[in-house]
């Protein structure tokens, strides 16, 4: 407001300027975090596909999966699909965090009061669903590339990189295949973003309100770990449906699964109810650090922008 103390102190020429759109979306560019967590993403996907349609599991534990992958495919094998993971972050994560930031600022009151918990959740769902639609082609490529090494050599798709995967999928299966599993992908994104973004904001607000934390990296770390745990527990059943649909093949003109609900019912029937949380450890080990790195990068870039641009 023009009469506020801060406006009078800075003067009209020093009043805070709105963030450029490019800066908002740059804040969502957390591709650097993917380099650290890509191996965990691969292990999570392999475990979710392990024992598909049967009670017997290909991998007993996450550590068994890591040892098996390293033994059969080497160090390079653990980073299979990295190019697809980076493209996913460049599309999905950038879009969702950019839209979340814009909507969050729009719904913040003039006196600086942030949106309440339910509004945060709604913003997160909207941002997540939009980002998921944009990022589904990269997601399909990622799932297929990370799953390839577990198949016999004659059944592997053999994509060399994410662009080769997108080109071949379009040429061999049609452009709409790039959006296969779009509905469960968007459903997962709604759950993830409602849980991750809202729980991060709420956790940070709670920690700062406790009086034991200041707005620094340690506070961001604690809030991120809480957010990652909540998000993992909430989103895993939807994630396993997404993973299996995007990796499925068409046999005799008939797809393996009809939809996400069919995946969930078959997993419960043939593999047991708790198989819906198969791969929980690598999923949280991936999502926890990724959430930490993402929000720490975001917070630091926000501070950098405010310090060197808004105060200029």
Automatic annotation (TrEMBL):
Q: What is the lineage of its organism?
A: Eukaryota, Metazoa, Chordata, Craniata, Vertebrata
Similarity comment text for this entry: Belongs to the mitochondrial carrier (TC 2.A.29) family.
**Protein's membrane topology:** Multi-pass membrane protein
Q: Which PANTHER family would you find in this protein's record?
A: MITOCHONDRIAL DICARBOXYLATE CARRIER-RELATED
Query: Which sections of the protein are Solcar repeats?
Result: 23-106, 115-206, 215-304
The GO cellular component terms are: membrane
Q: What are the alphabetically sorted keywords of the record?
A: Antiport, Lipid transport, Membrane, Repeat, Transmembrane, Transmembrane helix, Transport
Cellular location(s): Membrane
- InterPro entries listed in its UniProt record: MCP, MCP_dom_sf, MCP_transmembrane, Mito_Metabolite_Transporter
Catalytic activity reads: malonate(in) + 2-oxoglutarate(out) = malonate(out) + 2-oxoglutarate(in); maleate(in) + 2-oxoglutarate(out) = maleate(out) + 2-oxoglutarate(in); (S)-malate(in) + 2-oxoglutarate(out) = (S)-malate(out) + 2-oxoglutarate(in); succinate(in) + 2-oxoglutarate(out) = succinate(out) + 2-oxoglutarate(in)
Q: Where is the composition biased (Basic and acidic residues)?
A: 10-21
Q: What is this protein called?
A: Mitochondrial 2-oxoglutarate/malate carrier protein
- PROSITE patterns cross-referenced by the UniProt entry: SOLCAR (PS50920)
Q: Which GO terms describe its biological process?
A: lipid transport; malate-aspartate shuttle
Q: Which SUPFAM superfamilies match?
A: Mitochondrial carrier
Q: Quaternary arrangement and interactors, per the entry?
A: Interacts with SMIM26.
Q: Which Gene3D superfamilies match?
A: Mitochondrial carrier domain
Gene behind the chain: SLC25A11
Region annotated Disordered sits at 1-21
Report a single Gene Ontology molecular function: alpha-ketoglutarate transmembrane transporter activity
Q: Which domain of life is it from?
A: Eukaryota
Could you confirm whether the keyword NAD appears in this record? no
Query: In UniProt terms, what function does this protein have?
Result: Catalyzes the transport of 2-oxoglutarate (alpha-oxoglutarate) across the inner mitochondrial membrane in an electroneutral exchange for malate. Can also exchange 2-oxoglutarate for other dicarboxylic acids such as malonate, succinate, maleate and oxaloacetate, although with lower affinity. Contributes to several metabolic processes, including the malate-aspartate shuttle, the oxoglutarate/isocitrate shuttle, in gluconeogenesis from lactate, and in nitrogen metabolism. Maintains mitochondrial fusion and fission events, and the organization and morphology of cristae.
Q: Which organism is it from?
A: Chelonoidis abingdonii
